[in-house]
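Supplementary Methods. Inverse-folding protocol.

Structures were first reduced to a discrete structure-token string of length 190. This string, shown here, constituted the complete conditioning input.
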């Protein structure tokens, strides 16, 4: 009697293992797709068969127009690639599919002209970027859409000549800024 019981349990375990293995193989969870074309258009998958990249390849690397995806299937980046990195014109999205940035990239970083958005979709900043920061001439906005600052930026902060506005549109400071702080000597409406 005891042997039959062991046999029945062993049989159930074997069937369960076979069913699970078949499901895992069918979904691609065990054997990821690593077939990357040397050149031309192709796809690369991750995890359980979700698309990681779809686009052009040159010498086995992502190059030219393509899309990179989050593990949840949402597009992370849609644009140009060079040697596997975001490079040139593109759009960057959050994991919920909200557009966060559109503009130029260099070596996976925001660089050159671009626009950065709040999660709500409202424009936060338009202007120049360097090393993932607001840098150069640009305009920053309140989430309401009102202009906050128009002037020069460095390393993500106000630096150089600029105008800072209250959300109601009234000019608060005009003059030079250093490290996000207003320098005296300009016009202040405080």
């Amino acid at each position: 009697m005891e042997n039959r019981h062991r046999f029945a349990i062993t049989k159930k375990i074997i069937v369960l293992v076979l069913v699970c293995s078949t499901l895992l193989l069918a979904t691609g969870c065990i054997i990821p797709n690593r077939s990357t074309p040397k050149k031309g258009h192709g796809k690369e998958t991750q995890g359980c068969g979700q698309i990681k990249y779809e686009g052009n390849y040159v010498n086995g690397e992502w190059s030219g127009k393509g899309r990179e995806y989050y593990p949840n299937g949402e597009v992370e980046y849609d644009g140009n690639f060079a040697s596997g990195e975001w490079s040139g014109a593109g759009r960057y999205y959050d994991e919920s599919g909200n557009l966060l940035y559109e503009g130029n990239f260099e070596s996976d970083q925001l660089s050159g002209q671009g626009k950065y958005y709040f999660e709500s979709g409202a424009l936060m900043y338009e202007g120049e970027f360097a090393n993932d920061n607001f840098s150069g001439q640009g305009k920053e906005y309140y989430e309401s859409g009102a202009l906050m600052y128009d002037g020069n930026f460095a390393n993500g902060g106000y630096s150089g000549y600029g105008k800072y506005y209250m959300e109601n549109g009234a000019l608060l400071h005009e003059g030079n800024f250093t490290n996000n702080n207003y320098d005296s000597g300009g016009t202040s409406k405080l």
